[in-house]
């Protein structure tokens, strides 16, 4: 590994946000998954939880995810399990969802430990999941079409989270625990 | 047309922003073009200029664009012509581009007449175009990967433009000239 490469990996690890995460709840188109994971890397997310749809899309989706090196994608069976687990760790779980009781995405404090849940391309977030999370958040729509592409919605909300965290200095000093930091440094650098 | 449909079309036209536009400079993957045009609709953009790459991608790209009903996609041959034309109308042309003299995207005043230019998936914005525009703007990257997907970059910048314009009441009263408003009302409603 060149010194430049080593520096770049350390710089990235120094900016990783262990308390910001994404749950893809049934997102299955490979180009959407790829774009979401790429955006997660760019805003400093370490872990993504992927609940794959229970049908043949599973395979295609699995492929796109394997290609991701800088973000750990954890395959999960039930989104409600992931939600409860994160809530148990004190994480606020937000669903990107156009519901009546949703608040606008810029009204949220993303400097709190936060997980953002995204729904499927076709059916969005289920009622069960929408009520299991702490808050539904929505991006205002000014046009004829009723929703954004899911990777676009993810990016709009995560870029706001990134700005809030930048303003508070969250990217200015390492936030990942030492053991995990060194494990990732090894894996990214040499594996 | 039902009264509800008519109302919905009028509401959308009342929020259209004739002085906000996008230039796709060689973007050619159909799912990216589709996602960008869908985002344009959602933030109230009326017109998009598409400079198609000069090769076989032209056809695929052309297909994705024909499917767009609520945003007018103008096919153009040369991006420098579009840039000069818009500048001649007093529009600030911004290129989404990671260059040394770029400023951060949230530092821009998007309530001015604005065009946002996006580069190709593979090669980005050419040097010629980067120096023809008024300003290069960049979205900070905190990770290992060096750029966002192009439709994601478009959405992040356009959602900031949308927020600024919402805060200034730009969506609260009709801004499209009467003749064009009625032409679009007819086309969307009956054609
Ligand atoms: C294409 S949308 C799903 C549309 C689906 N027909 C529905 O009604 O929910 C896919 C996902 O993108 C996210 N999304 C899209 N537009 C959004 C918006 N304006 N606000 C919040 N989330 C949005 C949500 O997570 C949604 O489940
Ligand atoms: C995939 S990128 C092109 C990457 C290309 N290798 C380059 O160096 O420009 C496609 C387009 O998305 C936009 N884009 C992607 N990431 C961006 C960022 N961080 N800031 C501004 N624009 C970005 C730009 O318009 C770019 O031309």
UniProtKB/TrEMBL annotation, chains A, B:
Family: Belongs to the class IV-like SAM-binding methyltransferase superfamily. RNA methyltransferase TrmH family.
Protein name, UniProt field: tRNA (guanosine(18)-2'-O)-methyltransferase
GO BP terms: tRNA guanine ribose methylation
GO MF annotation terms: tRNA (guanine(18)-2'-O)-methyltransferase activity; tRNA binding
Biological function: Catalyzes the 2'-O methylation of guanosine at position 18 in tRNA.
Record-listed S-adenosyl-L-methionine binding positions: 139
Superkingdom as given in the UniProt entry: Bacteria
Catalytic activity: guanosine(18) in tRNA + S-adenosyl-L-methionine = 2'-O-methylguanosine(18) in tRNA + S-adenosyl-L-homocysteine + H(+)
EC number: 2.1.1.34
Gene name, Swiss-Prot/TrEMBL: spoU
Keywords, in A-Z order: Methyltransferase, RNA-binding, S-adenosyl-L-methionine, Transferase, tRNA processing, tRNA-binding
Enzyme class: transferase
Span of the entire protein shown here: 1 to 191 of 230
Lineage of source species: Bacteria, Pseudomonadati, Pseudomonadota, Gammaproteobacteria, Oceanospirillales
Keyword Endoplasmic reticulum: no
Species of origin: Alcanivorax borkumensis (strain ATCC 700651 / DSM 11573 / NCIMB 13689 / SK2)
Domain tRNA/rRNA methyltransferase SpoU type: 20-158
């Amino acid at each position: 590994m060149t010194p430049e490469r080593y520096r770049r990996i350390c710089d990235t690890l120094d900016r990783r946000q262990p308390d910001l995460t994404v749950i893809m709840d049934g997102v299955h188109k490979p180009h959407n998954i790829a774009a979401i994971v790429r955006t997660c890397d760019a805003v400093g997310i370490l872990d993504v939880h992927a609940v794959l749809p229970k049908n043949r899309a599973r395979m295609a989706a699995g492929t796109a995810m394997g290609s991701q090196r800088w973000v750990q994608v954890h395959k999960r069976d039930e989104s409600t399990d992931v939600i409860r687990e994160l809530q148990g760790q004190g994480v606020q779980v937000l669903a990107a969802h156009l519901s009546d009781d949703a608040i606008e995405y810029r009204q949220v404090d993303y400097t709190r430990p936060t997980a953002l849940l995204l729904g499927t391309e076709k059916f969005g977030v289920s009622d069960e999941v929408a009520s299991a999370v702490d808050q539904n958040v929505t991006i205002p729509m000014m046009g004829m079409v009723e929703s954004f592409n899911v990777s676009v919605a993810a990016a709009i909300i995560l870029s706001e989270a990134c700005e809030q965290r930048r303003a508070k200095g969250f990217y200015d000093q390492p936030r990942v625990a030492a053991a995990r930091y060194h494990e990732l440094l090894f894996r990214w650098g040499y594996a």
